[in-house]
């Protein structure tokens, strides 16, 4: 299974069987493997995923800058969602690169994996309940990212408190799989599987029924 297949499967599942929850349809405690994390493009016809944006977001994460202006410099503009999430200084909490650089978490993970392939401590913490007073406008959706070596292959587990399948998952899985490649390259391990877990996996009402026959005809006839 790759990211595209996971997106399509859970899109249909949530659309048909999701629970009404705060202007979304949602499923709870959803986890699945992406067996080929390097295959991280979403080419589903009804999604129209923007690779250029995903690459810019990844480069922004690599910069470690929590300022949305930097994303604007990379992408050509600051998307409206990031403008809404930024504080008065243009700073956000959800630049995951900023978070994994705090306390040199990424470097420590790499060193732990090099020193002890059996470590169970190679984890990056992102959401921190002790900092919840800082989350007035922007609460990180990801709890943590953990890496494990099994049979000389790097495994990754991403744990999220909340994940919008339409925008969040498509862009998040791209950046996390790119992070996995970085860790694999720095440690010398082959890529293994990526396990993605979301306590709340959801679709907003505006994103439902995009794969319907009626929508397909509308797209075809323009």
What does this structure look like?
The protein has helices at 3-17, 51-63, 68-75, 80-85, 96-101, 105-115, 165-187, 213-221, and strands spanning 19-21, 24-34, 123-125, 142-150, 153-160, 163-164, 190-204. By secondary structure, it is of the alpha/beta class. A hairpin with a 2-residue loop joins strand 4 and strand 5. Helix 2 (51-63) packs across helix 7.
Chain-averaged pLDDT:
95
> Rounded to an integer, what's the Rg over CA atoms?
18 Å
- Largest sheet, strands/sense/barrel: 7 strands, mixed
CATH homologous superfamily title: Thymidylate synthase/dCMP hydroxymethylase domain
CATH topology: Thymidylate Synthase, Chain A
Quaternary organization: single chain
Number of strands: 7
Order of helices and strands: HEEHHHHHEEEEHEH
The N- to C-terminal Cα distance equals 32 Å
Structural class assignment? alpha/beta
Examine the secondary-structure arrangement and name the CATH architecture. Answer: 2-Layer Sandwich
- The first-level CATH class is given as Alpha Beta
Strand percentage lies at 15-25%
Summarize this structure briefly.
The chain is of the alpha/beta class.
Brief descriptors of the model:
alpha/beta, 222 residues, Thymidylate Synthase, Chain A
SSE arrangement:
Elements: H1 3-17, E1 19-21, E2 24-34, H2 51-63, H3 68-75, H4 80-85, H5 96-101, H6 105-115, E3 123-125, E4 142-150, E5 153-160, E6 163-164, H7 165-187, E7 190-204, H8 213-221
Parallel strand pairs: 5-7, 6-7
Antiparallel strand pairs: 1-2, 2-7, 3-4, 4-5
């Amino acid at each position: 299974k790759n990211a595209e297949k996971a997106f399509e499967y859970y899109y249909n599942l949530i659309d048909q069987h999701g629970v009404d929850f705060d202007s979304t349809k949602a499923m709870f405690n959803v986890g699945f493997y992406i067996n080929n994390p390097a295959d991280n493009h979403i080419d589903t016809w009804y999604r129209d995923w923007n690779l250029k944006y995903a690459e810019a977001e990844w480069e922004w994460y690599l910069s470690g800058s929590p300022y949305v202006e930097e994303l604007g410099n990379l992408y050509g503009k600051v998307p409206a969602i990031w403008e809404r999430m930024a504080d008065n200084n243009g700073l956000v909490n959800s630049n995951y690169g900023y978070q994994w650089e705090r306390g040199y978490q990424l470097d420590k993970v790499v060193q732990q994996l090099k020193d002890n392939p059996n470590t169970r401590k190679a984890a990056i913490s992102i959401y921190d309940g002790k900092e919840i007073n800082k989350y007035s406008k922007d609460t990180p959706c990801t709890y943590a990212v953990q890496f494990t070596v099994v049979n000389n292959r790097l495994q990754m587990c991403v744990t999220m408190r909340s994940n919008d399948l339409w925008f969040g998952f498509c862009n998040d899985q791209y950046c996390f799989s790119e992070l996995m490649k970085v860790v694999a390259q720095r440690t010398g391990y082959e890529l293994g599987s990526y396990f993605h877990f979301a306590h709340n996996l959801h679709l907003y009402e505006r994103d439902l029924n995009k794969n319907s026959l009626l929508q397909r005809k509308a797209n075809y006839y323009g």
